[in-house]
UniProtKB/TrEMBL annotation:
This is DUF3572 domain-containing protein. Pfam families: DUF3572. The lineage of its organism: Bacteria, Pseudomonadati, Pseudomonadota, Alphaproteobacteria, Rhodobacterales. It comes from the Bacteria.
Length: 94
């Protein structure tokens, strides 16, 4: 069953809040994306920024597990939410 648009936004916003509070991963995200603190704050409501946060978390299974376990999010909801955001329907062959 696909997530509703409200559920997608909730997963994305929860992921952003989790990342913002993660002292180890936040600098990695900022370095990888080039985002600064202002861009991070401005991007919270931007679906493309939300997608970038989910893409980042999805890069490592341990990060997915840590996020989901910490926030009580079912593991499969991260990928479902990412698929519903901009660029999520693109086919990746790598």
């Amino acid at each position: 069953m696909a997530l509703s648009q409200d559920a997608v936004e909730q997963v994305a916003l929860t992921a952003i809040a989790w990342l913002a509070g993660n002292d180890e991963l936040l600098p990695v995200f900022m370095g990888a994306t080039g985002a600064d603190e202002a861009a991070f704050r401005e991007g919270v409501r931007d679906p493309e920024f939300q997608a970038s946060v989910l893409d980042f978390i999805l890069m490592d299974d341990a990060w997915v597990v840590a996020f989901c376990d910490n926030k009580g999010v079912p593991y499969d909801h991260v990928m479902q939410a990412r698929g519903a955001l901009p660029g999520g329907a693109q086919v990746h062959w790598t």
